[in-house]
Each structure stands twice: as structure tokens, then as C-alpha cells.
Amino acid sequence: MEEVWDVYDKDLNKIGKDCIRGKEILPEGEYHLVVNAIILNKENKILIAKRAEHRPNGLKWEFTGGSAKKGEDGIVGIRRELSEEIGLDVSQNQPKLYKTILSDKYHDIKQIWLFEREVNILNEIEFVDGETIEVKFVDVEEYKVMYENGELIKAIDFTPQDFKELIETR
């Protein structure tokens, strides 16, 4: 089934147009919404997910997320992505918008959502759709090493310095 996106201007206003994933290239000045989740626990560790080998950037680590579908705002989209990719129910958690990034290269507006939440990996995580094969919590130092070693996908948009600042402002 085709995935349909709403199309936005640079200020995240819907322009009354749809786009079908993989079939259309958005022109200059048009964007689709991408959402990612940072899940931060009480020990100041974040949850990262390993992509399945068959996916682009296979076996690299990332934050759970993806494109918001037609009719979804960022919160609805990130809740769906967390449920689909790692089986995590965050319907009762209110995320905070951590960062918004406009990319003319990829024609997307990326929202990074912060969930301050404990997650029991053994009991709450389920690899539902085959996109993700593993998750783990990492601290700043482990994240920095993974970042420097190229173990994270390049489009992650969250540096070790961002991680440090997030903890400091918590």
C-alpha cells in the first residue's frame, strides 16, 4: 500500500497537496514531515535502535522514527512509529518537541521528540514490522564513541554535544 504524506511549506503549514512516498520528488520549497524519538531514562541514557540488515543503512543505529503520514501531526506520527517499529506504547506519555530541522536536500522538516520515560526492554519492546532488530540504552560516552565510529546513520541530527546539553538542561 502506498504511503501518502501531507506537503508543507518551510513554516510547517500544509499547502493542500499530497505526495506519494517514492513516486514523487518534491520541488524546491515543499517538504514532508519526518519524526524521530529520543527516549531518555532516569540514568540519562537514551534508547537507540539498530536497523535491519535489508534496510538502507542496514545494521546502523538510529532513533526510532520515520515520515508522518497524511493527516498526522508530529505527536501522532511519532507515537505510531514507536508502536510500529519497536512495539512501544507511548500513548500516555506527553513528549516535548526537542528540535526541528529543515532540510532542503531531503525536502523534509524533521521533528525530534523527547520522551522522558523508563522502558523495560525485555517486557515493552517488540520488533513488530521487521525494520528494527535490536535496541539498547546508551550513555553520553558510548554514544560519542558510536557517533565517531560511524555506527549511527548519518541523518541522525543529534550529536554527542546535543546529548550533553540535553542532560544539562533536563
Tell me what you see in this structure.
This protein has 170 residues and is an alpha+beta fold. 21% of the residues lie in helices and 33% in strands. The chain is built from 4 helices and 9 strands. The chain has a 4-stranded mixed sheet with strand order 6-3-8-7, with helices on one face. A hairpin with a 4-residue loop joins strand 7 and strand 8. The chain starts with a strand and ends with a helix. 28% of the residues are buried.
Topology (elements, then pairings):
Layout: E1 4-8, E2 14-20, E3 32-40, E4 46-51, E5 61-62, E6 65-67, H1 74-86, E7 96-103, E8 108-116, H2 121-124, E9 132-138, H3 140-148, H4 160-168
Parallel strand pairs: 3-8
Antiparallel strand pairs: 1-2, 3-6, 4-5, 4-9, 7-8
Q: What's the helical proportion of residues?
A: 10-25%
Secondary-structure-derived class: alpha+beta
- Compute the number of helices: 4
- Mean of residue pLDDT values: 96
- Written as H for each helix and E for each strand, in order along the chain, the element string is EEEEEEHEEHEHH
> Which outline best applies?
globular
What fraction of residues sit in β-strands?
A: 25-35%
- Largest sheet: number of strands, sense, barrel closure: 4 strands, mixed
Residue windows where pLDDT falls under 50 for at least 5 positions: none
Output the radius of gyration.
Answer: 16 Å
Neighbour order of strands in the largest sheet: 6-3-8-7
Number of strands: 9
Distance between the termini: 41 Å
